[in-house]
Amino acid sequence: MRRTLKPIALACGALLAATSLSACSGEPEQQVLTVFAAASLSEVFVDIAKDFEADHEGVEVKFSFAGSSDLVSQLESGAPANVFASANEKQMERAKEQDVVKGVDVLFASNTLTLVTPADNPAGITSLADAADSSLVICAPQVPCGAATEEMAEEAGITLKPVSEENSVTDVLGKVTSGQADAGLVYVTDAIRAGDDVKVIDIPEADSVVNFYPVAAVRSDDTLAQEFVDFIMSEPSQAKLRATGFGSPVE
Fold first, then answer.
1. Which residues contribute to the annotated binding site?
2. What topology is assigned to 113-208 in CATH?
3. Would you place residue 224 in the very low, low, confident or very high pLDDT band (cuts 50, 70, 90)?
4. Which residues bind molybdate (predicted)?
């Protein structure tokens, strides 16, 4: 008996050393859930993920935040992800058309644009028209915030002449807060997050251009990913989204 048990004990010990204590201790194995999400979601999604991890023992949520179009390109190139959350429906549709997202998407939030300047507003900007003639930074057209910017400018009948077009809304905000630009068009949620680092100038036309945010599991058979999607739709998560400035997901 001892000769048969000893190799088993040694094997278990080797397994413990080579992998993790969960193999022989009965502890749950660590699972990593990778979420690709629009840059504007960075702060609130990290907060929501902490609640999700607390409710799912042994699960760690890891994020990749970037412009939605860049994230779809990464998925098309084979980047591994479990969940995709986009800042507009167009990029989610693109992901589904390219067959890189196969889960059922659901709208979970909305967002609108606003104009921000550095806190001291050195250029004295008071309107979108003023910003159009200043050192203005906006999102690139292929990014959801850039598409919304184009639509809003058309709605206002104003031709924008940006000095820079960025690949994410956080990059636009960064150029404004660092003083590299006189003004920038960002989401309301980003302006709230920036706090006293920016001066916010409301744009009447912004209310007519709303971005709706969809989220979906990348694979339709990924149970944990679907649980995360459902968690985003839960009342506590929705309350956190509202608290950070996101609007209703209802069109």
1. 40, 68, 169, 187
2. D-Maltodextrin-Binding Protein; domain 2 (3.40.190)
3. very high
4. 40, 68, 169, 187
